[in-house]
Amino acid sequence: MIVVYHQNNRVTKVISVHNELIIFDLHSSIAEVLMVLAHQFPEEPIVWCHQLLENSLNIDGIATLFHHDKMMLSCRVSPTSFLGTGIGFVEESPFIKVNKNNTFPTWLMSSEVGMIHASALRLIRGSLKPDANFDYFLNSVSKVGMILGLLCYSEPQLLLKNAPNSISPKANLFILFRFVKQHYKKRWIVLLFLNLLIFEKRFPIFPFLYSLFFKNRKKTVLNLDAISVQSTLTVVDKKTIDVIIPTIGRKQYLHAVLQDLAQQTHLPVNVIIVEQNSLPDSVSELDFLTNQTWPFNVKHTFTHQAGACNARNLALSQIESEWVFLNDDDNRFDEKLLETFLNKIQQFGASVITTAYLQQNEPQRYSITNQSGIFGSGNSFVKASCLSTVSFDMALEFGYGEDIDFGMQLRNSGFDIIYFPEIRILHLKAPMGGFRIKVKQLWDTEKMPPKPSPTIMYVFLKHYTKQQLLCYKLVSFFKLLKKESVLNYLVFLNQFEKKWNLSHYWANKL
Predict the structure, then answer these.
(1) Alpha-carbon span 462 to 481, nearest angstrom
(2) In this predicted structure, what is the pLDDT of residue 282?
(3) CA 90 to each of CA 184, 248, 462, 490: distance values in angstroms, whole numbers, following the listed order
(4) Maximum Cα interatomic distance, the chain, rounded to a whole number of Å
(5) Residue 339 CB burial class (10 angstroms; 0-12, 13-18, ≥19)
(6) For 133, which of 16, 50, 353, 424 is 20 to 30 Å away at the CA?
(7) Are the C-beta atoms of residues 366 and 413 closer than 8 Å to each other?
């Protein structure tokens, strides 16, 4: 391991893990020094640390935290990121509102302290310029790399608890606009300008024009497959798996799912089925659960209370195994699904994964293992120990956003969600089955329907930044405005604001 200390935008010293001093070019930028060191020490992790934090660097714990070579870690003592809150005006992902108390997936990196493997820097060297601004360089590397499979995290354990507050640089509007121009589609610099103008009453015309002189890095040709991954973490012990399946009126489809599970080369221990039917006198229709023999234990719950959130929570309360497969009653998969899953989590040291989830004849667009911005409650695997503090939020029952919320609960608890494209589940999207009644929502009595759905607003208020919510509002406004005639613009504007405020009101009620 190589440690690079820096201050005032210059490297002050470079040492090895054995405290041996390493010679470097005093006139080179910090990023350039890192690139040279990556060439000199191609098998080593490279750590950067602000000089003021030298005594707080958790040298002894780094090896455990950096458990495979395809990672980039960082920690910022300062409360805000280098790019500031303004990045929320252009970033829609769950990676912006960082929980600094736990490991959290994010591409927002800091020059205060962090690390990356030399092999990653060597691949990046020919594709990304080593910017003189070290924070800009780090955020550019992570923003480009994260999409291509570099696993990036805010990691508070890089520093000991006695870490002092350091003076950290913060990007001005010129740097923010440049970053957006170089890492997002062109329309986002226009939207950034409009967001700042409308919501912050600023007119950043010169930063906007300045950004136009920079080349976009979004299409950077960079293949990180050459970095081998073999985690040093032990995430699998017993190799036991429970499967949970909520179901309502899809007897034929559920039977097919159970047959797929029965053919697995690695069998689950328990299959937990929660069957719903809200008719008062109804009984179970799943006779095959008892009149057929299955190579696993079937735990069947029948309830008159409809709702996927409640059904999944009932199933989660019955888990006994080390791992949980959150499944749906209209999925199909091959016999090696569970075996492949176990191999992948051991390779990456992952605690939560999600799979490719395609419908019949749907092409697979994403082929890179990376950090997922979504969580699917019908196609994901979670280590049971991760579920002690999370559950499906009943405020979102019969609405939208429960998957998003559950995924954010996991991230905030310190568990990343990794997408594995080679693990595939076919989603049949079966017709809605069973006895269902229209659920009456609290806001159904409103003369004007709230927009967006209050459950979506609830999720935004709970898990996203103020700037992300405002950006969502502006983008929604333009999308709906396109459908209106010019003569109706003033009426539309008035109604849009009223619907938005109604959504906000009912979200707070939830």
Answers:
(1) 27
(2) 87
(3) 8, 40, 19, 26
(4) 81
(5) middle
(6) 16
(7) no
- Residue 431's contacts (CB-CB under 8 Å, 6 or more residues apart) are none
Give the three-state DSSP class for 71. Answer: strand
3-state secondary structure (DSSP) of residue 101: coil
Q: Give the CA angle between residues 174, 179, 184 to the nearest 5°.
A: 135
Q: Give yes or no for a cis peptide into 452 (omega within 30° of 0).
A: yes
Task: Name 424's bridge partners.
Answer: 356
* Residues β-bridged to residue 433: none
What is d(CA 378, CA 328) in angstroms, rounded to the nearest whole number?
5
44-58, 120-134, 146-160, 377-391: range with lowest mean pLDDT = 120-134
Closest alpha carbon to 471 in 229, 191, 261: 191
Q: How much of the chain, in percent, has pLDDT values that exceed 70?
A: 99
Helix (H, G, I), strand (E, B) or coil at 434: coil
Report whether 327 contacts 376 (CB < 8 A).
Answer: no
Token pair of 244, please? Answer: 């949970």
Q: What is the pLDDT of residues 126-175, one digit of tens each?
A: 788 899 999 999 999 999 999 999 999 999 999 998 777 767 789 999 99
Residue from 163, 52, 49 nearest 110 by CA: 49
Q: Answer whether 504's CB lies under 8 Å from 497's CB.
A: no
pLDDT tens by residue, 396-436: 998 889 999 999 999 999 999 999 999 999 999 888 765 56
d(CA 171, CA 335): 51
Q: Are 1 and 44 in contact (CB under 8 A)?
A: yes
Cα–Cα nearest to 325, from 380, 362, 287, 288? 380
* C-beta atoms surrounding 348 within 10 Å: 23
